[in-house]
Amino acid sequence: MIERKITIDTDNQPLIDALAGATNLSKQSLKSALDKGCVWLKTGKKINRIRRIKKPLKIGNEVFIYFNEKILSSIPAQPTLLLDKNSYSIWFKPAGVFSQGSKWGDHCALTRLVEKKLDRPTFLVHRLDRATSGLMILAHSKTMARELSKLFADRLIKKTYLAIVAGDFTHKKISLNTDIDEKHALSHITKLMQNAQKSLLSVHIETGRKHQIRKHLSEINFPIIGDRLYGTAKKNHPEDLQLQAVNLVFNCPIDQQPINITLSSEDQLKL
């Protein structure tokens, strides 16, 4: 693993030469690392991810590399395009795919995967946890990102999830409104079906607090199956987190026509 800051002392030095000189990595490894997003360039007060291998650097520039072979060798599941409105799109994000990248790379992030598939800039307007699968909207311009972000902030995008919990969920319908991080949070839960071991729930959230559904269900002693953070699942638990965003309803910010998109039944969680 390499985590290093490189201060440039030679004008017009190509980025890949600076990296090769400061690490023991081959240029082929560095090209792959750059493409996977683990190299950053600081110019003035700005620091941005950089991928151009021949980018000429200036004296005083600072380059940061966060090289972790285990992370960079990960192969992400591929998202599925469900709706393309050119300035925004809706995707099915599989479990295990990040919503966005980190300093260690972005090749396993939905934003980067979509950017490469569509050859368009991609902007995140909401998030799903890595372990959560389901529907996500991505913007392809800064203007659209602002418009969609406002829709989420104003609670004009209705979000429905499926969750599977252990045992017989004791409520047919229940609303949970315990504050999360000292902010109002409201989840409406309906039991859809059950078998001998599990219950399938539909969850509509009116607010979008971090880990809202996971926290609310855990608080009433029905943590989601596969939840290592708020439930009882161990690190080697055989099942993914059984939480999935399955429906989005909103008015299209382009033409104001209603959008109601539901994940196909074959991709939905099942008991």
Structure in words:
The chain is of the alpha+beta class and 271 residues long. The chain is 18% helix and 32% strand. It has helices spanning 15-22, 27-35, 69-72, 110-118, 142-153, 212-219; strands at 2-7, 13-14, 39-43, 46-49, 56-57, 62-67, 80-84, 88-93, 123-124, 133-139, 158-166, 173-176, 187-194, 198-205, 243-251, 258-262. The strands form 3 sheets. Strands 7, 8, 9, 10, 11, 12, 13, 14, 15 and 16 form a 10-stranded mixed beta sheet that branches. A hairpin with a 6-residue loop joins strand 15 and strand 16 (258-262). The longest helix is centred in the middle third of the chain and has 12 residues, at 142-153. It is elongated. The model has no long low-confidence stretch (mean pLDDT 96).
DSSP strand tally: 16
Distance between the termini: 41 Å
Radius of gyration: 22 Å
**Helicity level, as a percent range?**
10-25%
Secondary structure category: alpha+beta
Helix count, DSSP H or I runs of 4 or more residues: 6
Mean pLDDT: 96
Which geometry do the CA atoms define? elongated
| Major sheet summary line | 10 strands, mixed
Write down the secondary-structure element order.
Answer: EEHHEEEEHEEHEEHEEEEHEE
Poorly predicted segments: none
What share of residues are in beta strands?
25-35%
